[in-house]
Amino acid sequence: MPESSPFSVAGPEARARALASERVLEQLTSLVRRSRGLSAYVAQACGLQAAQVELLGALRRAEECRVASLATHQLVDPSVVSRQIATLEKRGLVARRPDPDDGRASLVSLTDAGREKVAEVRRLHLEAVTESMRDWPVERVSRLAGDLADLGAAAAVVYTNLSGALPATEKDHA
After folding, report:
1. What global pTM score does this model have?
2. pLDDT, the chain, mean
């Protein structure tokens, strides 16, 4: 193994932690892959594209923001988000209004129909998650939720240290 490998660390406890961390990484990778597939299915079932669902979710969390902020959050060019927002606006799911601080920009927010669509998407996701753990005792589900929250918080700190980015807040993941 290369010298930089976590498996090259000395001591049985350090090696055990590295192996356990590798298992966590493998499981998270698998879960993310399945989650993407579920997200695509849910989006289609709701008459949307996956990217549109992500934008609606981002607007749900932000309540109102500029297209440029959405583009930054989605890691895409503002023109891409602008086209998606235009489509969502035509469908009555989002509304634009002039930004009072900058007449050249507009602020985007969910409409009532957009909030209903987000609720439908979340309901379908929740049904899938609930079904996947239907045989688990409630205590195990609660423990997993807490463990995932702890992992997310710890990962945010590491991400911030590595990238210099601002850490995501709990509201960002609601």
Report:
1. 0.75
2. 88
